[in-house]
């Protein structure tokens, strides 16, 4: 059973998400709240598997709450799935840097929300496919490249190639088609990349690639 905490300042959205989630045999809503301070407190108390987090909320916003729950240095990070509206997508990059495992649009179909929760709970990252490329392209310029050169990255040539395709917003299937390799081989490369670079998920891999100047 995947235990979910829903945090959104709009009661109707919280109720809608909870209804959709609780209708699934493998998902259960263990709590809900309307602000970041309560989200942090409830997450530490209830220890959910996934927090579905809004971005703009009164008091402590979703980005700050995410950083407290999943940011660098947090001893027991919680997986956070951020939900946003398209006209608020300027916050997405900051939420990913704060430690979120992925994001979805609020108007995504219920099936996509459920898939997102299961994906994040399983330890993978989720980027809404219809906006991934746009967001990556739009906000990559905000990431200051580190002083390291691409040659300092401890990856093979093929792993670097896969990393760059990940950072360009391609899915595993699209990477497989681009490189003419199997889907399972791509998964193996992704796993190796995350392990070698000590990254948690694909979201961190995207940020890493841009910070190292591997993609622009």
Summarize the structure.
This protein is α/β, with parallel strands linked by helices and about 220 residues long. The protein is about 45% helix and about 15% strand.
Polypeptide structure, described:
It holds the Pfam family GerE. This is Two component transcriptional regulator, LuxR family. GO terms for molecular function: DNA binding. The chain starts with a strand and ends in a 5-residue tail after the last helix. The chain contains 10 helices and 6 strands, in the order βαβαβαβαβαβααααα. The protein folds into 2 domains: 2-138, Response regulator (Rossmann fold, 3-Layer(aba) Sandwich), CATH 3.40.50.2300; 143-211, Arc Repressor Mutant, subunit A, CATH 1.10.10.10. The protein has 216 residues and is α/β, with parallel strands linked by helices. Helix content is 47%, strand content 14%. The model has no long low-confidence stretch (mean pLDDT 84). It has a 6-stranded parallel beta sheet with strand order 2-1-3-4-5-6, with helices on both faces. The radius of gyration is 17 Å and the shape is globular. It has helices at residues 11-22, 36-46, 62-70, 92-97, 110-121, 132-139, 157-167, 172-179, 183-197, 202-211; strands at residues 2-7, 27-33, 50-54, 79-84, 102-105, 126-127.
List keywords for this structure.
single chain, 216 residues, alpha/beta, Rossmann fold, Arc Repressor Mutant, subunit A, 6 strands, Two component transcriptional regulator, LuxR family, DNA-binding, transcription regulation
């Amino acid at each position: 059973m995947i235990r979910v905490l829903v945090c959104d300042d709009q009661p109707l959205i919280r109720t809608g998400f909870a209804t959709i989630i609780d209708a699934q045999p493998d998902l259960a809503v263990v709590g809900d709240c309307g602000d970041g301070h309560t989200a942090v407190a409830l997450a530490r108390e209830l220890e959910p598997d996934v927090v579905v987090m809004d971005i703009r909320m009164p008091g402590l916003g979703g980005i700050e709450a995410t950083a407290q729950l999943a940011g660098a240095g947090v001893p027991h990070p919680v997986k956070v799935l951020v939900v946003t509206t398209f006209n608020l997508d300027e916050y997405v990059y900051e939420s990913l840097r704060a430690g979120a495992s992925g994001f979805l649009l609020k108007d995504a179909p219920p099936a996509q929300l459920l898939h997102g929760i299961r994906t994040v709970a399983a330890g993978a990252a989720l980027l809404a496919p219809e906006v991934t490329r746009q967001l990556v392209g739009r906000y990559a310029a905000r990431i200051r490249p580190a002083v390291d050169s691409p040659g300092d990255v401890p990856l093979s040539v093929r792993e670097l190639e896969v990393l760059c395709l990940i950072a360009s917003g391609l899915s595993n299937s699209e990477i497989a088609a681009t490189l003419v390799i199997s889907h399972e081989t791509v998964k193996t490369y992704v796993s190796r990349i995350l392990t070698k670079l000590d990254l948690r998920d694909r979201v961190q891999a995207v940020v890493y690639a841009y910070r190292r100047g591997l993609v622009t």
